[in-house]
Amino acid sequence: MRVQGEVDAATAPRMGETVNRLLAQKQRVVLDLRNVDFMDLHGLAVMIRATRRVRTDGGSFAIARPAPCVRRLVDLVHAEGEVRILPDGSDPLRAA
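^ thats the sequence. predicted structure below, dont judge the formating
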């Protein structure tokens, strides 16, 4: 799933609804975040909740190609262990 633009209090709920719907359908979910211009804690919370959900309910969730602003946010709040970030160059469709 490609995400672009700003992920904040106004847009994160919609992203969360989509992620939850896909996870409920037992789909593998990979967020491609290379075109995200801004992400705040609301966006990060969506990703952490999705990660925790798959740990509990099964499924697969990861993020791929995080934009620098996303990587900075994850590092700033020490959330590296809370979200699965695929290595650069990996195939998101195979790795999820």
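The first helix runs from residue 12 to 24.
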